Amino acid sequence: DISDVRWGSLSDDKFETPCAPLCTSGGTATFFRVCYRPGCEPHGTDPEQYLGKDVAHASDEVEFYDKLRTSRECDAYWASFSDMAMECPGVVRLQCVNPQEDALELRSLLLLQNLRLGFQKLRLVDVKLGAETSIPCWKGKSRLHAWKNACVDQRTNSALEGFRLEGMELPPRALEEHVQAVIDTRNRRGFPGSKLVGAKQVTRFTLQRFRAHEFLNYWLDVSSLGAGAELHTHGAVWGAVIAVRKLTHSVLDIQVPQQWIGSSLALGLEVGKLDKAPQLVVKVFDWGRSELTTAADYAKLHAEERRERVRHWRQYIRAICRFQWELCRIAAHRCCCRAWPAFIFELRCEQVSIVRAAILGESSIEAAGMGVYHLPHQGKQASNSKVVIPLIRRISGVGSAHSVAGVLHLHISLPDRGPCGEGPVIISVRGATNLTEAELANGAITVVRIIGFERAGDAKLHMEAWRAGYPEPVPRGRTYAQRTTPGKSLKSTMVWEDTFEFLGLGEAGAAAAQARLQEILPSGVRLGNSLPIEQTNAEGVRLGQCVGSARTVAHLEEDGHQQNRSCPDTLPNEHQGDSDAASARKRSSPWPELLPPTVGMSTQADSAAQCFCIQTVPWLQEGSEYPSHWL
Description:
Strand order of the largest sheet: 1-2-3-5-4
Structural class: alpha+beta
Radius of gyration: 26 Å
Distance between the termini: 34 Å
Largest sheet: 5 strands, antiparallel
Strand content: 15-25%
Number of strands: 20
């Protein structure tokens, strides 16, 4: 019921009717196409400036937008935040087509900014913010439904990184085929859980479990547009970093904690045409379980209510800071690299079990084989070449010889001139032959992960650490990974038709990109050459030890020559391991200390993300002091 909301009324005779329903990637409320009648739109407004959201599922949002409208007129910080929210002129009652019955009925519609406006093709992701996406007895959420939401939170990326992917409109082929492969594998005869959940639930749960660097990689995938796609991607990364930084500033300027539960971040990118500076949009939305609290409102709250506000506000801010960190580290590696002279190719088998993931919150991914390829040095480059790479298995025992898991077939295109790895390096993955039944296991999705390295030594270290059974080491130089669509099995052959581009910027270009990143990073974040390594993983092992042990397997200098092939019998002394790893990074790591690549131990990346968030917003640290007027 919105009759008590005092809002500037919108005349229904200015809009065309009936309003047709629109397809969306997530959510429960129905959206409708809204269009001004010719000549009735306000000056400077597009006829399709807004979409209509059914108020029957958005009554609390009406109150939120109404309060935001009045608050921005009084306080500058709310005006800054409202620029990052969807434009909302009010509510209008219009004749709409019922999507279930195909009949006309009068509905109240909340008009919201049409994010598709100005895009030829918009790829839009919906990222739900916060580690907790529901609260019992808050905004109509029952205890049962809150418990169900909590179960989802605990088994998806919300529990890991503080946010999760809810949907993606116009996804790339790689994501569509990955999701379809999960569904097809689930439907195979005898596969557990095939009758417990439907295809729609499988799709949504698969998206919700992606980590940020995985779904951002899909969001940035415009390889279908052909040559120049990587320049388009670089432009999208820089634009997103700047936009999310602006969002971070706007929410940090808000004077009192807010309780914004289950709200979302919309990230949209032009994928219909190539552009060095592609159009994109970043907005926060979905305020159905949120309450806008002014300073005057906050002063009236009881102490317990204030503590709840502070707890949930920390979750919200931490989610935005973590998302900003994820974008920054993509920029630091994918968009600031001088050259890509070496590549690792991993044949990975991903065991699919939706039921297991839903119950235990875990999944299984194994590398069945791995190969390394070094680009030819300057003067020996061929513009196009077919490359065959043996995929080596992991060492099975002491003194065991190399065992080949299969052969990978590639097509690599390089610039005719220039230093090794500079310019566009285009890699087409065609297929893998001579695979055994182990690599073609039923119930598994088989992909190739391609890892580009700025330093050849990092590629060798990665290979040897994996073969010796050590954790995936954190590279010294810039590194970025991409992955193929699921392969199609034909007897002992796996087939792909995927093309990837790695863009080396050269010395001058890389230096300019790195300077640009330093200007964008939050002022509280230190730039240096050492990672915070005095952390422990889930098993209580110091991360410094893990890094030290992996490097001892094959300590490599910058020129890629191997120093020591012997595998240590024991881990090094913990203090010695920490100092060695730290001093090694101070000598050679070219990326900002808190922005490790997406390759390497995830526990160490999570520690770096936590440090980034705390340096950006000190009161996010446990036990830190809040502004005195909060409690």
